[in-house]
Specification:
A 3-stranded mixed sheet has the order 1-2-3. The longest helix has 13 residues. The protein is built from 5 helices and 3 strands. α3 packs across α5. With 110 residues, the chain is α+β, with helices and mostly antiparallel strands.
C-alpha cells in the first residue's frame, strides 16, 4: 500500500511499472500481506512513542500498520528505521539494519 501511494504521489520512482514489480516479487516468493481484522485490532491498541517520553511523536500510519501486522502474525520486521525499536516492548520482533561505511549490519532484537 505504501509503495503504491508513494509512487502515485511522485515520492518514489519505480524502475518498473507497479504490475511488473509485484509480479516479480511474487516470482521471488515475496508474499504481500493482507490486512485483516486482527491487524486492525492490534493497530487500535498500539502505543506509539510520544514527545513526552522519547522526545518525538511517531505518527506514521504506514509504520503502525506494518508493526501491527508483524506483531499479530509473529513475523520479524527488518528495518533501518530508528523508530521501530520503541515497539519491541509491545511484542515486535525486530532486526535492526544499520549502515556503516556502505555495509549493512544486522542487530537482532529477539
Amino acid at each position: 500500500m505504501e509503495i503504491a501511494i508513494k509512487s502515485r504521489d511522485g515520492k518514489l520512482q519505480l524502475l518498473k511499472d507497479y504490475e511488473t514489480l509485484f509480479g516479480s516479487l511474487g516470482n521471488m516468493g515475496v508474499k504481500i500481506l493482507d490486512i485483516d481484522d486482527q491487524h486492525l485490532i492490534m493497530l487500535s491498541h498500539l502505543n506509539y512513542p510520544k514527545r513526552e517520553t522519547v522526545g518525538f511523536d511517531h505518527k506514521d500510519p504506514f509504520d503502525h500498520l506494518i508493526i501491527s501486522q508483524a506483531i499479530t502474525d509473529g513475523l520479524c520486521l527488518i528495518s533501518s528505521d530508528e523508530n521501530m525499536k520503541h515497539y519491541i516492548e509491545q511484542g515486535l520482533e525486530l532486526i535492526k539494519v544499520t549502515e556503516k561505511k556502505g555495509i549493512a549490519e544486522l542487530d537482532s532484537r529477539r
